[in-house]
Amino acid sequence: MLDVFVHQLLVFTTILAGLVTFIEFLTKNNVLLELLRSSLIILQGTWFWQVAFVLYPPSGSPEWNLSDIENKMFLTMCFCWHYASIFVITGLNYALITWSFEKEVLSNKAKRVAITTVSQILDASEDVFQRAAEIDNEDSFSTLIEQMESYSYSLGDETVVEPNVAIQSVTRGSDSGSSVLFSVQKGSSGSLVSGGTSINKTADGLNPDGQTELQILLNTGENKNPCGFVVYQNNKLFQSKAFTATSDFSQKIVSGKINAKDQDPDVSVQMVFNPTTFKKDYKYPESLDILSNIGCALSIAGLALTIMFQIVTRKIRKTSVTWVLVSLCTSMLIFNLLFVFGIENSNKNLVSDSDIKVNPDNNEIPVRDTIDTPNPSCTVIAALLHYFLLVTFTWNGLNATQLYFLLIRTMKPLPHHFILVISLVGWGVPAIVVGVTVGAVYAQSGNKSNWELDYRQEEICWLAIPKSDNFVKSPFLWSFIVPVTIILISNIAIFIIITVKVLWKNNQNLTSTKKVSSLKKILSTLSIAVVFGVTWILAYAMLINNDDVRIVFSYIFCLFNTTQGLQIFILYTVRTKVFQSEASKVLKSLSSSFDRVKPLPSMTPLRLRVRMYNMLRVIPSLHERFRLLEPSGMTEETSLS
C-alpha cells in the first residue's frame, strides 16, 4: 500500500504541474521554473517521508527489515529519475504550446519567456535528455527545434540572447542586398553572451577573422523574405539513436532558415568554420620513460645471465628450486622484452587523416564521434603482456608456496609430481584467465568494430583503464587486479612468516662464530622479498588521487620494479659460491694473461705503465671481496642459491 500511495502522490504532482502550466499559458505568468522546483521538493519530501515511515513505523504497523528498506528506497529513487525526465518533456511541451498559440493568445514577451525556459532546461545533465528522448513518443525535441527556427524570423531585426540559446532575426526590404552574412564569434566563457553574433546585410562574401568561429552566407537572390538564425550552446536537444557520443566537450549547434514555403532554387548557402579535431596524446613523462628503459635493459641482461647460470650450474649447486626460479626469470624476461619493444601503439605514428581508412565520399552518419584505427597487433601485444605478467605473479606465488613447504613445514622431499603440477598452474592458469577475458569482452561487444578498445588502451598496448562508473564490470579489475592482489597478500603473509621464524630467528645453541651476521640476514630478507614481488605493493600507492604524491610513488615504483631482474641477478647469482669461484678463476686468468703481455716499446709514456700496474695489483684482492657477499649456508641450498 505504501508503494501505491507514493506512486499516486507522484502522479498527482505531475498532473498538478500540467494544470498549473496550462494556467500559466492563459495568464502569461512565467511560473514554470518555480513549478519544477516545487515539484522536485515534493518528490524529495516524499522520499524522505517514506524513509521515515520505514525506519519509524507508527504504532500498529508491521516492522520492516533491511531488504524492505532497500527495496522501498530504490523504488522511490527510480520514480524520481523517471519523473525528472518527464519534467524535461513538460518544459519542452510548455515551449511548444507557447508557440502554437503565437497568433491567437500570446505576445512576443511570452515567446521570449519560452526561450528563457528552453535555455534553463539545457542546463540539465546529458543523462536526463537521453532518458527523456527514450520515453518521448511524440518527438518533442524535433518539434521544438522546428518551432524555434520558425520563431527566429518573426522577431524583426531583434536579437534574443540567453546563456544556452541565441536567436537572431533579419528582415529584408527592397533596398536590401541579395545576401545575408551571419557570424558567430569565439567566446571566453561557457555561455552565450550579447554581441557574440552579428548580421551583415550588405556583405558580398565570407570575410572571417581571427575571432570568427563560424560564418553562414545566405545568397537569397530576389527572395526578400525574412530569415533567422539559432545558436545552441550545446547539443543536448539533438539526441540520436544511431550516433553515440563518447567525448565530453560541448558542441555548438547553429541553424539558419528563410521564410519560404517551397524550396527556392535561387537560395544558396556558403559556410566557413574552423573544424576542430582531437588527436589522442601519446606523450608521457620523459624522465619516467628513460628510467623505465634503463631499468628494463638492466633487468633483461640480469635475467638472461641468471637463467643461463641456473641451468648450467644446476648439478653443481644441487638445489631444488632451480625450475621455479628459471620459470620466474623466463616469464619476467619475456615481459620486459615485450614492454620495451612492443608496448608503444604504432598508431602514434599516424600523422594525417590520410593514414586512416575513411571514405569522405560516403555521406553516412557515423556511429560515434571518434575514429579509432584498428590495430590487431597492439591487441595481441596487450594480451601477451597481460599473460606474461600474470605468469610472473603466479610463479611468485608458487615460489612462496615452495619455500613455505621447504623452510616452515620442512617437507623434504617435495610431493611426487610437484614440479609437473606447479608447471601446469604457473603456465596454464594465466592462459585460461587471458583467454576467457578476451572472449568475454568480444562476446559482450557484439558487432562493434572497435571491440578491442574495451580490452586494451589506445594510448599504449596495455589493459584498458575503466571509467569510475564502470569499474566494477571492467575486465581490468577481475582479470588482473583481483588475482594479483590475492597473490600479493598471500606472498606478504608467507614473507613475514619466513622472515620471523627462519631468517631472523636467534638460535641460542650456536656459538658466536657460527651465528649469521646482520648483513647476511638483510641480504637474505631482500632475496626473499624480490622473488615474492613484495615491491609491487607500491602500485596501489599510485592510485592516490593526488598528483604530487602519485608522481613520487611512480618514480619509486619504477626504480624498484623495472630493476627487479637486476636484483635477482645480484642476489641469486652474484652471491653464490659457484659464481664467485668461477668469477675468481676468470679474473685470475685475465691477470695471468696480462702478466704474459710483452713489454711495451720504450716510447710508451710512463703513466700508462703505472695505470696498468695499479690495475693488475687490484685484481687479486677482488676474490676476497666476493667472499663478503657469500650467502649463509643454512639457506643456500633451499632458497637463496
UniProtKB/TrEMBL annotation:
Family assignment from sequence similarity: Belongs to the TMEM45 family.
UniProt-annotated location(s): Membrane
Transmembrane feature ranges: 6-27, 74-97, 290-309, 321-343, 384-406, 418-443, 476-504, 525-545, 551-574
Keywords, sorted A to Z: Membrane, Receptor, Transmembrane, Transmembrane helix
Species of provenance: Cricetulus griseus
Protein name per Swiss-Prot or TrEMBL: Putative G-protein coupled receptor 128
Domain G-protein coupled receptors family 2 profile span(s) in chain numbering: 288-576
Any one of the GO BP annotations: cell surface receptor signaling pathway
Location (main, coarse): membrane
A GO cellular component annotation in the UniProt record: membrane
Molecular function in Gene Ontology: G protein-coupled receptor activity
Recorded topology in the membrane: Multi-pass membrane protein
